[in-house]
Design goal:
This protein is mainly beta. Helix content is 3%, strand content 40%.
Length: 414
């Protein structure tokens, strides 16, 4: 979709949201890695039909298996050297165009490759094949939350599924079944009470993990380049509207997460889903920037999803505008990518080589840059940055782990 950038068009968007009954955001509190997504709440009958969707799949809210799963491991032999402070985190190249990034939580990372869905605990040297790909099906677009994964399965079959997996035991559940190209599903997310997905020509949907009730939260098919589930609902960095949108899982109200007059891009949540960072173009000279065709400037903004407090993180505009991409945050630390030191600092293309990594500690105000250390679509876990790397010896993008505190990384600090 093309982003429509003028103030008049943004006003139309806001008015459209208002007419749809959209309200303010209450984005919930922190998650812990040991929460089980079977908390109670208001809902309907097990297996109830969804609004505008297929009939509900019979739902059992109890996870029965207790024996630890015995997953096949993926070998790490022959992995390339990804540079100072870096190691291969998932020992299997990805098999998609990495539009939506790897899955991550406070405890692990996951992605899908030619063999199926792979997962590794944070810091682990072992990669596990948790959902092997069969001859007639595939596993795509995973999302992690605590001890659970959600993903799409069976893309080559007449009937496809949104599936849940308990990582510790390997037990699975079908959250939703669908068939036909026109009912295709994209993206999944999960919190302690709901599974989420987006279905073509239907909208944003959810299933209550205790009652089994299936609902349509928003009768609009969003194109989310960044998606995360807080304890109150779903955050979507929508490329069509060019804004970050929040959908309340109880009221179905949707709202702009932080209303602004210009493009918002590259949104990403922290692993515990309590913070969000994005690149905002409201500051001169960025106001006329578009999602696909033209951009200028752009500053990193962050929001505490519990308190709703918003802060501007970078301050290059308007005096020295500098393009930015792929912010990630965890705790007080925020990182993002910029053009290299010898490159045009403010290229007007929406696509540019973002190779220099920037780290900013909001607790100390210290900002540092390192050449050729940027990763595509990263997630930040303390001082460890996970993301896609393609370099010498890598036949396809792989998920790597960069220790930002490694003394071998040549940081230049202000």
């Amino acid at each position: 979709m093309n982003w429509r950038s003028s103030a008049a068009q943004m006003g139309t968007l806001i008015a459209t949201l208002a007419l749809a009954g959209l309200a303010g955001c209450s984005c919930g509190g922190p998650m812990t890695s040991d929460q089980t997504p079977t908390d109670g709440g208001a809902g309907g009958r097990d297996g109830a039909a969804g609004e505008g969707g297929d009939a509900g799949v019979p739902w059992d809210p109890v996870w029965h298996k207790t024996t630890p799963a015995q997953y096949q491991t993926v070998g790490s032999e022959g992995q390339p050297d990804c540079g100072p402070g870096c190691r291969i985190a998932l020992s299997l190249p990805i098999s998609h165009n990495y539009y939506y990034g790897h899955a991550f939580s406070v405890s692990g990372v996951a992605d899908h490759g030619t063999s199926g869905l792979v997962w590794a605990p944070l810091g682990s040297q072992t990669t596990y094949l948790i959902v092997p790909r069969g001859d007639d099906d595939g596993v795509v677009e995973p999302y992690l939350q605590g001890d659970f994964a959600i993903y799409l399965r069976g893309m080559a079959k007449a009937t496809n599924f949104v599936e849940l997996l308990k990582l510790s035991t390997g037990e699975t559940k079908t959250a939703y079944a669908y068939s036909g190209y026109e009912k295709s599903v994209a993206l999944t997310a999960l919190n302690s009470s709901y599974a989420f997905w987006i279905q073509a020509k239907v909208g944003v949907m959810s299933r209550h993990l205790q009652t089994g009730e299936i609902r349509v939260l928003l009768h609009t098919t969003l194109d989310c380049a960044g998606i995360c589930a807080t304890e109150s609902g779903l955050v979507c960095g929508d490329t069509g509207y060019g804004q970050v949108i929040f959908i309340d899982q109880q009221t179905k109200n949707a709202s702009l997460l932080h209303a602004g007059p210009a493009l918002q891009a590259d949104s990403a949540c922290s692993p515990d889903r309590t913070k969000l960072a994005w690149v905002d173009y409201r500051d001169p000279p960025g106001q006329d920037s578009t999602y696909m065709l033209y951009r200028s400037g752009g500053e990193v903004y962050a929001k505490d999803l519990a308190s709703d407090a918003v802060s501007r993180v970078s301050f290059d505009s308007p005096e020295n505008p500098r393009r930015k991409a792929w912010p990630a945050t965890d705790g007080a630390l925020v990182v993002w990518s910029e053009p290299c030191s010898t490159c045009d600092p403010n290229p007007d293309s929406a696509d540019f080589p973002a190779t220099r990594l920037v780290r900013f500690d909001s607790a100390t105000g210290k900002k540092c840059r390192a050449e050729d250390r940027a990763l595509t679509l990263p997630s930040l876990h303390g001082s460890h940055l996970y993301g896609y790397w393609t370099g010498p010896g890598a036949p396809a993008p792989v998920v790597v782990d960069v220790d930002l505190d490694d003394p071998a990384i040549a940081w230049e600090c202000e």
